[in-house]
């Protein structure tokens, strides 16, 4: 498990006023592990502004040191060994948790004899590595995987859009599912992920930092561009799906997704769509106006609070028109707003909109003529028409 041993605290998101990559790339300092750093404008408690650079991935000031846990990841294998693993007898194929890589054949097994091994890997494990690899955990973020219902919805979206190329940014389980559920001929999937362990298992997988659009291995960008160019047909649709870690900075993420969308458009796709999983309260501020919020709750298989879609605060944001989305579970079509609205988001005739972002449903206050959160219906400051809590 590549746990980071770096003890420097990350910069607080709340203090960040502006962030982005320096316009002149050669002038920007770079982290040796994660590529160009972000330039931040920070505001301290006294209201003073300072500029500084931080690693875009860890959000720590300065570069990550080669001693930190992430460095061991750089020695991780860089080529897909899936075919080799499938051709190796099952008793001679294992995964070494110490080395973070496959151990295939008797000599590699002997080299890892004193290490902790997952022995006798069956074929279904090799084809679905996110099921058995221990999720990466760092101080900032942990690796979470979409639940089966959320994966099923995203695959329905891929089919409904007649998507020919799917770019999975930081969502390995969607890539895994798309490879086998949709089939390689109609839709091809590519994984861009900072988890360097995955390249061994997927032929179409590139090491990538979604917070500065940096490919972390030499030649990665060229491989991505030639993968895009291999699309078939002139009426092709490309969908880019990103699942950023919780607490990740959404402004540089959006810049990165725009960059990927520009590359896909340059490759000749007639339509390029972008979809992001983010909490409704963050996305409203950081992802608009480029993406709109859908009443589609996404859940995670290995997250205690976000396991169930009915309570999850994570939503799908995208620039896919509502009319082209498959109906998300638990929604019905609101013909006034022309959108799929959740059952907890009833249309308010007085406001003329579906006004609830998160359950329970808002209630309309006749006196100040607006919808307020149900728990504030009796306590909000009605006369001024402005409730501090709302
Ligand atoms: Zn770094
Ligand atoms: Zn080992
Ligand atoms: Zn409505
Ligand atoms: Zn209302
Ligand atoms: Zn009121």
TrEMBL record:
Keyword set, alphabetical order: Cytoplasm, Metal-binding, Methyltransferase, Nucleus, Transferase, Zinc, Zinc-finger
Limits of the CTCHY-type domain: 329-390
Cross-referenced Pfam families: N6-adenineMlase
Keyword field contains Cell membrane: no
One GO cellular component, as annotated: nucleolus
InterPro entries: DNA_methylase_N6_adenine_CS, Mlase_EEF1AKMT1/ZCCHC4, ZCCHC4, Znf_CTCHY, Znf_CTCHY_sf
Compartment(s) where it occurs, according to its Swiss-Prot or TrEMBL record: Cytoplasm
Top-level lineage group: Eukaryota
Main location (coarse class): cytoplasm
GO molecular function, one term: rRNA (adenine-N6-)-methyltransferase activity
PROSITE patterns: N6_MTASE, ZF_CTCHY
PANTHER family: RRNA N6-ADENOSINE-METHYLTRANSFERASE ZCCHC4 (PTHR13493:SF3), ZINC FINGER CCHC DOMAIN-CONTAINING (PTHR13493)
Protein name as it appears in the record: CTCHY-type domain-containing protein
């Amino acid at each position: 498990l590549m746990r980071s041993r770096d003890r420097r605290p990350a910069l607080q998101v709340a203090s960040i006023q502006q962030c982005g990559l320096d316009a002149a790339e050669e002038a920007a300092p770079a982290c040796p592990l994660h590529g160009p750093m972000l330039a931040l404008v920070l505001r301290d408690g006294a209201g003073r502004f300072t500029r500084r650079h931080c690693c875009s991935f860890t959000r720590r000031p300065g570069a990550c040191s080669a001693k930190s846990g992430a460095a061991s990841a750089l020695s991780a294998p860089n080529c897909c060994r899936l075919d080799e693993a499938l051709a190796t007898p099952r008793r001679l194929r294992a995964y070494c948790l110490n080395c973070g890589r496959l151990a295939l054949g008797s000599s590699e097994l002997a080299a890892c004899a004193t290490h902790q091994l997952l022995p006798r890997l069956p074929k279904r494990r090799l084809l679905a590595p996110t099921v058995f690899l221990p999720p990466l955990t760092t101080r900032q973020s942990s690796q979470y995987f979409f639940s089966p219902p959320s994966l099923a919805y995203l695959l329905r979206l891929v089919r409904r859009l007649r998507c020919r190329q799917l770019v999975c940014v930081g969502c390995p389980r969607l890539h895994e599912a798309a490879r086998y559920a949709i089939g390689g001929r109609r839709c091809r999937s590519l994984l861009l992920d900072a988890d360097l362990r995955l390249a061994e298992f997927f032929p179409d997988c590139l090491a990538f930092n979604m917070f500065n659009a940096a490919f972390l291995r030499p030649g990665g960008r060229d491989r991505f561009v030639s993968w895009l160019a291999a699309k078939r047909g002139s009426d092709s649709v490309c969908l880019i799906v990103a699942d950023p870690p919780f607490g990740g900075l959404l402004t540089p993420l959006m810049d990165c997704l725009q960059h990927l969308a520009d590359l896909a458009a340059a490759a000749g796709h007639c339509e390029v769509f972008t979809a992001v999983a983010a909490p409704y309260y963050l996305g409203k501020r950081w992802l608009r106006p480029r993406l709109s919020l859908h009443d589609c709750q996404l859940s995670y298989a290995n997250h205690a609070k976000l396991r169930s879609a009915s309570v999850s605060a994570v939503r799908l944001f995208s620039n896919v028109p509502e009319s082209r989305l498959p109906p998300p579970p638990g929604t019905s079509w609101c013909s006034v707003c022309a959108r799929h609205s959740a059952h907890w988001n009833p249309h308010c005739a007085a406001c003329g909109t579906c006004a609830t972002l998160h359950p329970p449903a808002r209630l309309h206050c006749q006196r100040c003529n607006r919808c307020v959160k149900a728990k504030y219906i009796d306590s909000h400051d009605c006369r001024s028409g402005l409730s501090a809590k709302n």
